[in-house]
Design brief:
The chain is an alpha/beta fold. It contains 6 helices and 14 strands. A hairpin with an 8-residue loop joins β8 and β9. The N and C termini lie far apart (32 Å).
């Protein structure tokens, strides 16, 4: 798995392309804005989108989904607790973001919290706290996890937005503490890290 980060939108969200050279399949994580820039990378690399993975429903992480899915049809994975409001008018943040358009592709979520994403097997970890339907996507064989706004380098996501809860987020972080130290951690904003570095320096993962 080769992971490319494209920083999109006014809130500088990390939209990730997880690419497989052999199959030319890609998984798009959190297409939050700048659909044309993301599409251009996909076209130039001649990639086929296997699926879209949404770590949560906030507007800055989902706003380019519908436009990308028009050109690169594929199912979108989002927890139902966020999918029920992510494409409604309330999920706008003017003047930065209008309400996201609902994609024509299916929005799905596996009950067993496991899915095949392109050529890889993915384990979904439900991590509410930043939002009710926040999740992390863990690829055990590739030693990769996409943490959205649950976990950042040295800190965690805010809990003061609607549906956020500090105690719930603290409970969610316990599910991340057993990940192998070699796991590469790709957050929704800011630089990538490793779980080893976070265990060592992130105060929210201690104890």
């Amino acid at each position: 798995m080769n992971v490319e980060s494209i920083i999109v939108g006014p809130f500088e969200v990390n939209c990730y392309l997880a690419k497989d050279a052999a199959s030319r399949l890609a998984v798009v994580v959190d297409p939050g804005a700048d659909a044309e820039a993301v599409a251009d990378r996909l076209r130039r690399a001649e990639l086929t989108v296997a699926c879209y993975l949404l770590t949560h429903g906030h507007v800055d992480h989902v706003s380019a989904l519908a436009e990308l899915a028009d050109e690169f049809p594929a199912p979108a994975v989002m927890h139902p607790a966020d999918a029920r409001w992510a494409f409604e008018s309330a999920n706008r943040l003017e003047p930065y973001y209008a309400a996201p358009r609902r994609p024509s592709a299916a929005v799905v979520f596996p009950e067993n919290l496991r899915l095949t994403a392109g050529p890889w097997e993915c384990r979904i970890i439900h991590t509410p706290g930043h939002s009710p339907g926040g999740v992390c996507y863990h690829f055990p064989e590739q030693n990769v996890i996409f943490t959205g706004d649950t976990l950042f380098q040295g800190t965690v996501g805010r809990t003061d937005l609607p549906g956020g809860d500090t105690r719930t987020l603290a409970d969610s972080l316990r599910h991340l503490r057993g990940l192998p130290e070699a796991t590469r951690m790709y957050p929704g904003h800011g630089p990538a890290s490793t779980m080893a570095a976070e265990y060592d320096s992130n105060p929210f993962l201690s104890g």
